[in-house]
Amino acid sequence: MTAPSTATRSLKRRVRRQTTLQALPWLAPALILIGGVVVFPIGYMIYTSFRDLTRFGTDRGWAGLENYERVLELDHLSRVLSNTALWVVGVVALSVGLGLVLAQFLNKRFPGRKILRLVIIVPWAASVVMTSTVFVYGLDPFYGIINQFLVDVGILDTPYGFLKNALPGFLSAMAVAVFVSVPFTTFVFLAGLQTVPHDVLEAAQIDGASRVQTYWRVVFPMLRGALAVATIINVINVFNSLPILKTMTGAIPGYDADTTTSLMFKIIQNDRQIDTASALSVLNFIVVVVVIGVYLRVVRPMRED
Amino acid sequence: MSTVIDRPPTVTAVGGGVDRPPVHERRRWGLTVVGAVVATVFLAPYVIMLVGAFKTRPEILRVPPTYLPENWEPGNFLTMWDTPETPLPANLLSTVVISLGGTALALLAALPAAYYTARHNFRLKLPFMLLVLVTQMLQPTVLASGLFREFVTLEINDTWLAMILVNAAFNLSFAVWIMHSFFASVPKEIEEAAWLDGCSRSQSLRQIMLPLVWPGIVTAVIFTFIACWNEFAASLILLPTDTNQPLTVALTRFIGQYESAWQYVFAVSIIGILPVVALFALIEKHLVSGLTAGGVK
Is B180 exposed, middle or buried (0-12, 13-18, 19+ CB in 10 A)? Predict the structure, then answer.
């Protein structure tokens, strides 16, 4: 190919600039919305994290790294960090594992499969706050119906105050988080399973592969994309999750059942320290950005087909 | 696109042969039993909710609890509106207004962007789609303090408008993405043929494109509406006044009270969940591709 002359090159450039200008009116509403309500708050949050704010929001000037120091000096910080790690790793691992099994099951043909698919949607569609309140009520040691059920079937001797103390409360919240995350995860794996071609499976069976072998050697490797998507999107959702902890363990005094996200909301709501909360949010935001980076590298979405 | 994907999605993976002898029939009914157990687990909380919505206040606080109401009390769905914990009629109105407003705004902004990016190539297309994708992975939760500061400065904090903007902005990307893929699946030639036949651009949009991409628009609208309907974290921070709060935030007021009016919590929840689940079921098959931006193939 010969190098294009400067004339055609500048013409091309002009055409390109023109098309970009033509695109602008079509993209402007979306760009304004993203710019004003997503990008700008990011900047404002970072700015606020270096300011000194009163409880009423008056800006008292530059604060340097004071807000960040205050976050790092919180005495419950190490507990909150280990909670956050447990929360994200535990909930995502269990959701992905259960989702994988459930998707495999739903991919089989049996009477009632379509109904089951619809049923599994319910926790996904329903408000997480509303789902969590059922567990707050059901796990109550006195009038809680789940507690009563556990006693009646012999799992517990007496009703247990699951949400009265930090550790059992936190673990119960994790169980509910798994419950509401499994549906989405399952559907991602179902979509992944549908890309497994039938003839490959037949070939494996003709070659004498057992069911287990076929799954681990043929099907599972083809689910790698779905696995990456399900894991990473769940990591972001679970890390950012507030409603379950707010409703289930929010009434437990102290910070022993908090993640960095729920702690940040307590700092905003209870302490009204927007500056400190902003510093913590910036740290949370960095975590999210890293996960998004991993997503873009690993999954490479938007591959043009 | 690899050849694999061109196959119709009817291919089943391991197991589940097409027409097999009765032995397999029996096994399939065995799977149905397992399926029923799974369904029970997933529905249990919502059954508790439904049953609880029909209990009287003394019964729902009784120790030990009853599984089924001794006296069914459908009146809860009427008396709950006067409950002292929170102004429920105002909360329902907030949820409806914010959801409708957020959905309308998201659609208005997403539709032209989705159409243009599907039809034209331009230099900033990839950066734009990348921005949309990254927005999808951000949530208002992590930006709550920034949003709060912004809306206080703009003096629209504690208004429906603030939450309409937040919901529209954070759900825009799903709408752009799903509608983009529908527009892109309509061959350009169809549109060009319409132009040759003397259709104007707006005519071809309305009469040719709209019917073809309608499922994508419906999916975008329903998904955005549900996301707005269920939003919690940003509303918690941005709407301090009880009459402005949506149902999700209002429900948290009941929790931690000495003798919570659980029967009302559940009656409200039933009203809050039923329509959303019905709508969700309609768009289920398009959801994964939209939520993962084509990441699963």
Answer: buried
| A211 at interface of B, judged by CB pairs closer than 8 A | yes
Name the domain count of chain B. Answer: 1
The third-level CATH classification (topology) of the domain covering A67-298 is MetI-like fold (1.10.3720)
Q: What pLDDT digit, counting tens, does each position of A202-249 carry?
A: 888 888 888 888 888 888 888 888 899 899 999 999 999 999 999 999
Min Cα distance B230 → chain A (Å) is 5
**Cα gap A97→A90, rounded to integer Å:** 11
Residue B63 lies in a domain: no
CATH code of the domain in which B116 resides:
1.10.3720.10
Residues of B in contact with A115 (CB under 8 A): 39
Eight-class DSSP state of A253 = S
Mutate to test the interface with A, among B142, B254, B276 (most CBs of A within 10 A): B142
**Among all residues of chain B, which has the CA nearest to that of A114?**
B35
Q: Which chain B residue shows the shortest CA-CA distance from A297?
A: B295
Residue B115 forms contact with A (CB below 8 Å): yes
| Chain B partners within 8 Å of A288 (Cβ) | 137-138, 142
Q: Where are the domains of chain A?
A: 1-41, 67-298
pLDDT tens by residue, B86-132? 999 999 999 999 999 999 999 999 999 999 999 888 888 889 999 99
Query: pTM here?
Result: 0.89
**Ranges under pLDDT 70 in chain A:** 1-7, 11-18, 302-305
Per the CB < 8 Å rule, is A23 touching B138? no
Residue B172 lies inside a defined structural domain of this protein? yes
Distance CA(A155)–CA(B235), nearest Å, equals 39
Domain span at B287: 86-291
Size of interface A-B (CB pairs under 8 A): 361
Q: CB–CB of B277/A126 below 8 Å?
A: yes
